[in-house]
Amino acid sequence: MKPLFTKGPSLGVRLLVLVVLSVALMVVDARFSLLKPARSQMSLVLMDAYWITDLPGRLWDGVASQFGSRTELVAENEKLKTENLLLQGRMQKLAALTEQNVRLRELLNSSALVNEKVEVAELIGMDPNPFTHRIIINKGERDGVVLGQPVLDARGLMGQVVELMPYTSRVLLLTDTTHSIPVQVNRNGLRAIASGTGNPERLELRHVADTADIKEGDLLVSSGLGQRFPAGYPVATVKEVIHDSGQPFAIVRAVPTAALNRSRYLLLVFSDNRTAEERVNAAAQAQESLDAQGGGPTIPTTVPKVVSPAVPAAPAAAPAIPATAAPAATAPAKPTTTPAKPAATHPAAAKPPTAQPAAAKPAAKPPVSAPATPVGRE
């Protein structure tokens, strides 16, 4: 007699098969890129799950905001007005500095972006692995995000995009142990490399000489030497500098300026991808076109003014030539009459008198130039 229910594999065998399959999937995902398309497609399905799980929180925030007290709103309004006034004053100074920077760059015949294009993104998830500092934002490949794109908040740099999906992206934070960024001390321009330590509140500067001019409180900004992060953005503030006489390098610890574990809204920086040579060539072409537009109309206006007074000067000198030519012709007449006596006795000597009148013709040219000088003086 056959049993009513057939027996399958035992629970232990099933568990073993599932464990082996899970390990195989983790190894394939870590070593190869075969599962990235599947992960990208799964993110489309998980977007609805993210929206549904975040719905209670958004509903609670909406209800709580409706029942806020009037006094709190009035106090917050006054505080915001004061901050807005201070920010407007700083913006006026920043606008003047920006215009001055633009003029200096034009004088140096160079081209560079004064303000990069940015786009606001929102943090929607975090990596649960405590040894990996990664976050997920709600901007992806469909929004124009690219690999390696810098991400910052209102205080400074946070990290860079390391993985793209259609509508989301993964960002590697500065404090991850696998991340490093070239920085420089804002006070004196000292260059160094800031590396992550795995602690969200600490960065370390590697291979800083023990005699380097760096001290507590120095602001570290991005140097732009890695061609990944734009130059001049705050990165960290030096918190501790330890000098050991027995070690060639000092121990420098810094605190990131960005709120890595508190910021919710971030900025994606779209910087200029042109090389320095391309930017210089573009600036040179723009300067040449500007010079052509500014100097073109002045050339024809000055040429007629110089040529016009020289043209009537020629007829004015013409009547002066015959007036001086008459006395010049009488002056050489005396030497021609004196050798006329020996010309009768010596027939061979008749040739020199013929040469003398021929020489008298070039002698008439100096008198022509003589009256020309007073005409120029007039």
Tell me what you see in this structure.
Helix content is about 45%, strand content about 20%. It has helices at about 10-30, 35-65, 70-105, 275-295, 300-305, 315, 320-330, 335, 340-345, 350-365, 365-375; strands at about 115-125, 135, 150, 155-165, 170-175, 180-185, 190-195, 205-210, 220, 235-240, 250-255, 265-270. The chain has a six-stranded antiparallel β-barrel with strand order 1-2-5-4-3-12. A six-stranded antiparallel beta barrel has the order 6-7-8-11-10-9. The radius of gyration is 44 Å and the shape is globular. The chain starts with 10 loop residues before the first helix and ends with a helix. InterPro entries: Cell/Rod_1, Cell/Rod_MreC_2, MreC, MreC_beta-barrel_core. Keywords: Cell shape. This is Cell shape-determining protein MreC. Belongs to the MreC family.
Give the topology, please.
Layout: H1 11-31, H2 36-66, H3 70-107, E1 117-126, E2 134-137, E3 150-152, E4 157-164, E5 169-173, E6 180-185, E7 191-196, E8 203-209, E9 219-222, E10 234-242, E11 249-256, E12 265-270, H4 276-295, H5 298-307, H6 313-317, H7 320-330, H8 333-337, H9 340-345, H10 351-363, H11 365-377
Antiparallel strand pairs: 1-2, 1-12, 2-5, 3-4, 3-12, 4-5, 6-7, 6-9, 7-8, 8-11, 9-10, 10-11
Domain Rod shape-determining protein MreC beta-barrel core: 124-269
Family: Belongs to the MreC family.
InterPro entries: Cell/Rod_1, Cell/Rod_MreC_2, MreC, MreC_beta-barrel_core
